[in-house]
Specification:
By secondary structure, the protein is α+β, with helices and mostly antiparallel strands. 32% of the residues lie in helices and 28% in strands.
Length: 465
Amino acid sequence: MTIELRILDGSRAGERERFDKSVVTIGRHPLSDLRFDPQTELEVSTRHAELREDDHHWSVFDPGSTNGTFVNGERVVGSHRVHTGDVLLLGAGGPRVEVHLDIRSMTAAAGTTTEMEAMTRPPAAPRRDTNVRIAEAVEAETASLKRMAAIAIAAVVVIAVAALVVNRRQSSARERSLLDVVARSESASAPLQRTIHEMRSRDSMFSRQLAERDSLMARDVVRGRQMAATASAASAESVALLSQRVSSDTRVRQAITAMDIPRVHDANDPAVALIASDLDGTFIAGTAFSVSPAGELVTNKHVMRSAAGAPPRRIRVLFANTTDWLPAHLVRVSETDDLALIQVDGAGTYPTVAGVSRTGSDTRVGSPIATIGYPHAVDTPMEGSGLNVRARTTTMTGMVSKRLADVLQIDSYAGKGSSGSPVFDVHGNVVGVIYGGEPESQGRIVYAVPAERLAAFLGSAPIVR
């Protein structure tokens, strides 16, 4: 059966695509049947949803997209039957797609009669006198029409009254629900403002980004109160979309303020270093963090290996808030994970991170995290220029979005230079080491080596807890 998908908004607004197949895939992946721009449609996942035909009926399936799939404002859990005119929403703020099914092909398929059915039908009854049949038919039709007219009038009245009552109840319920969501978001704003104020002197870039994000969330709250005041005039879809967006904003606010970020920053920032590794004459920038007062630092193995697998010719380390590049050398690398241990050459006592979690027990999906590192290295604002700078870290916050045995996936930010950055839990302990991310996410889906792997690599070092 043919299905037509009409894109209502987004970068492909106004386009239509028809498919004559039983499975239609939707996403930003290059092989998706209905493909969205990976650079602009960021609400759409790589493999976001599938439309499947079964027994002349179509359903939409969500295989686990990051931002969810909605049918007429209702989130899809597993699968959801779709009909002509239904609107699919790909992510809370993503593009909308209207579904149109070929009704003629459905009718033809449903109405086909096999030869065997025709052969096994009972014989027709003997034909009666035509005049008798006509009189009986007229009398029956007249009586039937009278009954139907009376029933129809009564039904129209009942339906109109019921629709009025249901509409009023639904509008009132939508208004109450939206006001509840707005109230929760407003209650989460004050703690976030305190965090922004406390972080302003520690990391101006971080506090500025938080303030900009909070301003955008505040606009949605104002719009939510305005929409709640006129809920009867607003469409159910627009109320549902705004409620979804405000709820998502609230979870972000709560995740950020669930951590004492200033305390985590102050306890660990001095131990996070910018490193430069000379790989066959090409310097690679990255991040490392100190795990012993003697100057042992953890970073990524790929920062310590050239394309041919050769170790670096030189390593230089610049601790946070300092201006002196210190020589260092490679101690060892992990055989199984993207981890390496380096040693500062000069004797001395160096700052260390607060601790390294042995189990990462506080990194369940949804748990808040913070990262400290050097995304984009010296291209971010520093005191000085070039390599003659005072190292200033960048602090980021986010949540754990997936946890596997060998991968900790976080919803945060990482860029070139973030490799080797430590990931901290609510207690300020290291629970992961950033090593890469999903290219299409523009730095928002980040991968890290989990705490258990890091603890095993470090062995019985005193910093491991």
